[in-house]
Amino acid sequence: MLKLFEERERRIEGAKNEARQMYADADAKMAKYEEELGDVKRKAGEERDRLRAEGQKKEQAILAKVRTETNAMVEEGKAKIAKDGVALRTELTATAQGLARDIAGRVLGREVQP
Q: Residue 61: helix, strand or coil by DSSP?
C-alpha cells in the first residue's frame, strides 16, 4: 500500500514538475513572441515613416514642377496679352484716324486729307 502511495506521490510530483516546465516554456515563448512583435512593430513604424517621407518628397517635387509650369504659363500669357494690346492699340489708332477723317469729311462736306 505504501508503494502505491509513493508511486502515486511520485507521479503527482512528476506531473506538477511537468506542468511547471510547461508554464515556464509558455512564458519563454510568450516573451519571445512579444519581443518579435515589438521588433515587427518598430520595423513597420520605420517603414511607414520612410514611405511618408518619400511621399512628401515626391509631393514637393510635383508641386515645384507645377508651380514652375504655372508661372511659365502666366508669364507667357502676360507677354501675349501685352503683344496683343500693342497690336490692338496700333489697329485702333489707325481705325480712329480713318473714322476721324470720315466724320470730319461729313461735317465739312468735303474730303479731308491726312
A: helix
Measured distance CA(19)–CA(22) in Å, rounded:
5
Cβ contacts of residue 104 below 8 Å, gap of 6+?
A: 112
pLDDT (tens digit per residue) in 15-68: 999 999 999 999 999 999 999 999 999 999 999 999 999 999 999 999 999 999
SS3 state of residue 111: coil
User: For the segment 7-26, what is each residue's pLDDT rounded down to a tens digit?
Assistant: 888 889 989 999 999 999 99
Q: Which residues of 59-71 are buried (b: 16+ CB within 10 A; e: fewer)?
A: eeeeeeeeeeeee
For the whole prediction, is pTM greater than 0.70? no
Q: Determine how many CB atoms are found less than 10 A away from the CB of residue 38.
A: 10
- Rounded Cα–Cα distance for residues 110 and 106 (Å): 7
What's the length of the chain?
114
| Residue 111 to residue 107: CA distance in whole angstroms | 10
